[in-house]
Design brief:
CATH architecture: Orthogonal Bundle
Number of strands: 2
CATH superfamily: lambda repressor-like DNA-binding domains
Oligomer: single chain
Largest sheet: 2 strands, antiparallel
Radius of gyration: 13 Å
Length: 102
């Protein structure tokens, strides 16, 4: 595994967006945004929505794709109660019923 000290940004795609939505489960975008802020990164519910549906938002960017700072990814994972490796591991499956604990 690569040390996170070498990772600055993540190229965010639909697969990661789908995983984020499944991990969020029934938790509102607003509640998850609050938990991410508690983990040290200020994000809006609109930003989380962009991450869950990256293709819809990446089209307006010159690059054609979204990138997310690794610091934000780590804060998202803390808010979800998972490790970053869990988010990127395609062998793991998550139920839509998963949700962030209050």
């Amino acid at each position: 595994m690569i040390s996170d000290k070498y990772i600055e940004r993540i190229r965010w795609d639909t697969e990661l967006g789908d995983r984020l939505a499944k991990l969020r489960g029934d938790t509102s975008l607003e509640k998850l945004a609050e938990k991410i802020k508690d983990a040290g990164q200020d994000v809006s519910k609109q930003y989380i929505n962009q991450l869950e549906k990256p293709d819809a938002h990446a089209k307006r960017l010159n690059s054609g794709y979204l990138t997310v700072s690794y610091e934000k990814v780590k804060a998202i994972c803390i808010a979800l109660g998972i490790e970053p490796t869990d988010l990127f591991d395609s062998t793991k499956t998550f139920s839509k019923k998963s949700s962030v604990t209050p």
